[in-house]
Specification:
The structure is a homodimer of 343-residue chains. Chain A is of the alpha/beta class. Chain A has 3 domains: 3-47, lambda repressor-like DNA-binding domains (434 Repressor (Amino-terminal Domain)); 61-157 and 302-328, Rossmann fold (3-Layer(aba) Sandwich); 159-301, Response regulator (Rossmann fold, 3-Layer(aba) Sandwich). The first copy, chain A, has 13 helices and 13 strands. Chain A has helices at 3-10, 14-22, 29-42, 49-56, 70-73, 77-92, 110-113, 129-136, 159-172, 202-216, 234-245, 256-268, 302-317, and strands spanning 61-66, 96-100, 118-122, 141-144, 154-157, 178-183, 187-191, 223-227, 250-253, 278-280, 297-300, 326-328, 330-333. In chain A, the strands form 3 sheets. Chain A has a 6-stranded parallel β-sheet with strand order 2-1-3-4-5-12, sandwiched between helices. In chain A, strands 7-8-6-9-10 form a 5-stranded mixed β-sheet, sandwiched between helices. In chain A, strand 3, helix 8 (129-136) and strand 4 (141-144) form a beta-alpha-beta unit. In chain A, helix 6 packs across helix 13 (302-317). The longest helix of chain A is centred in the N-terminal third of the chain and has 16 residues, at 77-92. At the A-B interface, helix 4, helix 6, strand 2 and helix 7 of A face helix 4, helix 6, strand 2 and helix 7 of B. The structure holds a DNA duplex (16 and 16 nucleotides).
DNA sequence: CTGAAAGCGCTTACAG
DNA sequence: CTGAAAGCGCTTACAG
């Protein structure tokens, strides 16, 4: 059942049937109606998308590669919000989003093997195999929250400003003993001076930069703890526990999820938040406003980030003028998890 | 830059180059290595996926159509969890998931126009345009939490059993004045006897059936309120407010999100939960355990549902024996939002 | 182990 | 307004 079936059935050329579906202005209304109803009658659902994609050189699909597999990323509300915003913006332009998992055990490498018109890369190392595969294919790509790569448009948030505001907030509340809790950086309750930022991701580096500058105003030198892993893990939990053995009066966390972990562990030990321990998160995860005490955090506009990424890619697909890198704003949101230093 | 480029460069046939990439056993290791390195050198990223899809009749992509647009569905943790599980299971089998939005303003209908090997339809009416488009294409499809459609495998949860347990729980706590809050059903604080279930979705009908049977044991006749909309909306909020003017002692909600809405509104009016009002949700949304008081709810195993849907589709794709419909288990999880009836 | 032939189902200029 | 020609880039049997 192809274009040909319909064409022969009606005694017209395949071309005319193709036009009936794809270029209605190329034939008379009358003929088109006849073709469409014949197609309906014969049970022809329309031109085969795979064949059309090959002939047109265009699939209508955009790829999304997420830090880890979709399985992991979808446990993080921030990543989910991003995917949601991207999918929405793309849908408005007629594109569908395909989730690209990293290469599986069966030899399939989606970034290399899936037909698509372009891709958005979220929080990935430029060395990731999906990233390099996409570049080899010379597909239009947009890099979100990643290390800058020459020739690849870059979208991200202004990590430093929000972090600065968070640190400043603590300083104003009189805190002098502050711990910073991060991931993707190996640090075991070490003084800030001992930490090398060279290997840190731009996200972590940006936030650390803001936090440190904010604290420096008051001469505060924080302690830093982190894990080499990208997310909360046992190493970080243990280091947080160690920190709470002799707790600071305030904690700056690199995400709301980490902040909540600190909050839970403090509560388990009877440390009062915010009376004895102030906690500031990052992201303004939807859950931040619902927990008790509600979490003071740094808001980033996930919808705006998703829209920006989608539009950057769309303009690449339309071969418009190259998009300039964007740094979306962040801002402190003060809630109930921070208070004056007890000391 | 195609297979041909490499073939001519090396003086072999295109076929042999194709085999080097796709059927390594069809040529000598030595020749294959030469071909691969020539490809690398010339900057050939491998066979074009769109052309390959046409020739093979297989794309490696599976579609997912969600109740509303991805934009809406991704605000619901239950839907997100489902997508996550499906994407994970599919990835293990080498398939990628493409999110199919409903037809946009630009004439693109993803369910009709995107190349894919099959699709999973989540919580959709069989009359939805995406559903009919997929059927017209005769693609393998799996229907999740939808109305049964002849010839389409069906996956869903056992709504009635969990709902029955929830109602029984309230009965044991001595509640006799109970309200049921649903969506996708128009009911304005009406006695259960006046509600027609004919138009209800199988999900709502299943839960109502369980709730009613559970309450009937004790001769309790609930009041029902709902909105025609699929989700929480102003109509339902207003009806909840009206219910709280003369509150029952317990509420059975069709989702945790609705339960939390009831909880928030009760709190605003100074109605104590659970002392004056017991609330039971449905789903065991991740947020249910985090709110205060933690929500008593009916757990469904979203991961299992996603896996079941993915495997049902995979067996269809492999043309294995048709899958039998599945009803996954549900169970009551008692937390802190339910207590003995005050009266 | 290698390659010539046929085909996957469509669309894009272009000529009439 | 309609159609014959060429082509999109690959793979699947099959013959040597």
């Amino acid at each position: 059942m192809t274009l040909k079936t319909i064409a022969e059935h009606l005694g017209v050329s395949r071309m005319t049937v193709s036009n009936a579906f794809s270029r209605p202005d190329q034939l008379s209304e009358d003929l088109r109606a006849r073709i469409l109803s014949a197609a309906e009658e014969l049970g022809y659902a329309g031109p085969d998308p795979a064949a059309r994609a090959l002939a047109r050189g265009r699939t209508g699909v955009v790829g999304m590669v997420l830090t880890n597999s979709p399985r992991d990323a979808f446990t993080d509300d921030v990543a989910v919000g991003f995917v949601r915003a991207v999918a929405g913006s793309l849908a408005d332009a007629g594109y569908s989003l395909v989730l690209l998992h990293s290469s599986g055990s069966n030899g399939v490498v989606p970034a290399r093997d899936i037909a698509m018109d372009g891709a958005i890369i979220y929080s990935c190392s430029p060395a990731a195999s999906a990233f390099t595969a996409l570049r080899e294919r010379r597909l239009p790509i947009v890099n979100v929250e990643g290390l800058p790569v020459p020739g690849v448009p870059d979208i991200g948030i202004d990590n430093a400003t929000g972090a600065y505001q968070a640190a400043e907030h603590l300083v104003k509340l009189g805190h002098t003993r502050v711990a910073i809790v991060v991931a993707a950086l190996d640090a075991d309750n070490a003084p800030a001076s001992e930490i090398s930022l060279e290997t840190a991701s731009p996200t972590i580096a940006g936030r650390l930069d803001g936090w440190m500058r904010g604290l420096q105003q008051a001469g505060v030198v924080p302690t830093i703890l982190g894990t080499p892993a990208l997310e909360m893990d046992e190493i970080l939990r243990e280091r947080i526990d160690r920190m709470l053995d002799d707790p600071p009066t305030a904690v700056l966390a690199y995400s709301d999820l980490v902040a909540l972990e600190v909050m839970d562990r403090a509560r388990d030990r009877g440390i009062l938040v915010p009376e004895q321990l102030s906690i500031v998160g990052f992201d303004d995860n939807p859950i931040a406003a619902r927990v008790s005490p509600a979490l003071t955090t740094v808001r980033q506009d996930i919808d705006a980030k998703g829209d920006a990424a989608a539009h950057a890619l769309l303009s690449l697909l339309r071969e418009e003028t190259p998009v300039s890198p964007q740094r979306l704003p962040t801002a402190l949101v003060v809630r109930a998890s921070t208070a004056h230093s007890p000391s």
